[in-house]
Amino acid sequence: MARRAGRDVRLWVRDEAIAEAINATSHNPAYLPDIPLPEGIAATTDMADALRETDVVLLVVPSAAVREICAQAAPHLPKGVPVALCAKGIEEGSGYLMTQVAEEELPGHPVGVLSGPTFAAEAVKRHPTAATVAFPFGRDDRLAPEKSPAARLSVTLSGLNFRTHISDDVAGVEICGAVKNVIAIACGMMSGAGFAENTRAALITLGLQEMRTLIGALGGRDETVMGLAGLGDLSLTCSSTTSRNMALGTQLGQGIPRAECFEGRPVVVEGELNAINVCDLAARLGVAMPVTETVRAILHDGADLQASFAALWARPLLAEPDTMALAFTHPMAEGSEVPE
Ligand SMILES: NC(=O)C1=CN([C@@H]2O[C@H](COP(=O)(O)OP(=O)(O)OC[C@H]3O[C@@H](n4cnc5c(N)ncnc54)[C@H](O)[C@@H]3O)[C@@H](O)[C@H]2O)C=CC1
Ligand SMILES: O=C(CO)COP(=O)(O)O
């Protein structure tokens, strides 16, 4: 996107053969091999070379690799250069958001996120796509928002078929990205198990509420869930098996053993580990996330899929809006008397 928007782009990659292929053929043989990359992207395996005199860095590795790559980049990153993270997850063990991880490894650099409904394979084919860029806003950024890191990156990336909105709710945008992956696994599980659109719409709505509650507990903003990174990405990821998270859930719902999903290929499914990390974070903050907890129990604690979703549906009946804080026992809940 940045190259299409006319920027000078250097791409750091791990694999020498891929760097050479990109430079020689403007194709990446390992990822999106059928799609020509815009000419002029300079790929390198030399981190110092990739980062010299750069104005901004986009870090696009899975969340499990963010700390390692930040640490590798740290000695080479010019002073004060902003770093935008694209991974959608929470760190295992620490429960840190990705920006907290990067801030630890890259002190003195503004750290933000780029997130939203953005299947790479569609964006690269020029399907009109929109995302959110979030960076913290300091006092100066409020006085001159167009000079903020968020606005500068937004302008850097936006082109004919790609636009970015800006936000200062970094934690909110990050939580949206981490939670939507888990909800997409839930939607896939139910769809794979033979349930249809009512179920999916309910899970999306409950998932949106879980995001909102967790964001609130972290001091983020309610409205963020209604933005591109929230409702936008949640509805995208929960709508088709183009999403790896939804695809994993669908296969599990069909009864395919985990080891045989994706025909045994290794595929990045962020929501799988993040089901644990999101639940741990929520537990620490005293937030209930029933859909996310159901996914965690099925994926990691051997819970039965059908029984777990039946229990999810038999939870106490709630009021909308949930601020009314009312709940009634479900007549089908364990131990309840079933009405005639
Ligand atoms: N693919 C998509 O459509 C979107 C992906 N994302 C997020 O972007 C992040 C990355 O996902 P994808 O690019 O799809 O994954 P991917 O598997 O397609 O690519 C990941 C890239 O990171 C590299 N990588 C993996 N581990 C590494 C390590 N330890 N050190 C250095 N490089 C490493 C891989 O070689 C590969 O180039 C995830 O958090 C995902 O949720 C966000 C929006 C859209
Ligand atoms: O985050 C994504 C689209 O915005 C990609 O989703 P998956 O990781 O589920 O493929």
From TrEMBL:
Catalytic residue positions: 180
GO molecular function: glycerol-3-phosphate dehydrogenase (NAD+) activity; glycerol-3-phosphate dehydrogenase (NADP+) activity; NAD binding
Positions that bind substrate: 88, 244-245
Organism lineage string: Bacteria, Pseudomonadati, Pseudomonadota, Alphaproteobacteria, Rhodobacterales
Pathways involved: Membrane lipid metabolism; glycerophospholipid metabolism
Name of the top EC class for this enzyme: oxidoreductase
Any one of the GO BP annotations: phospholipid biosynthetic process
Function statement: Catalyzes the reduction of the glycolytic intermediate dihydroxyacetone phosphate (DHAP) to sn-glycerol 3-phosphate (G3P), the key precursor for phospholipid synthesis.
Main location: cytoplasm
Record key words, sorted: Cytoplasm, Lipid biosynthesis, Lipid metabolism, NAD, NADP, Nucleotide-binding, Oxidoreductase, Phospholipid biosynthesis, Phospholipid metabolism
Protein name as annotated: Glycerol-3-phosphate dehydrogenase [NAD(P)+]
Residues at which sn-glycerol 3-phosphate binds: 88, 116, 118, 180, 233, 243-245
Recorded catalytic activity of this chain's protein: sn-glycerol 3-phosphate + NADP(+) = dihydroxyacetone phosphate + NADPH + H(+); sn-glycerol 3-phosphate + NAD(+) = dihydroxyacetone phosphate + NADH + H(+)
Family membership: Belongs to the NAD-dependent glycerol-3-phosphate dehydrogenase family.
Binding sites annotated in the UniProt record for NADPH: 14, 31, 88, 120, 244, 268, 270
Subcellular location: Cytoplasm
EC number(s) reported in the record: 1.1.1.94
Cellular component GO terms, alphabetical: cytosol
Residues noted as binding NAD(+) in the record, renumbered to the chain: 120, 244
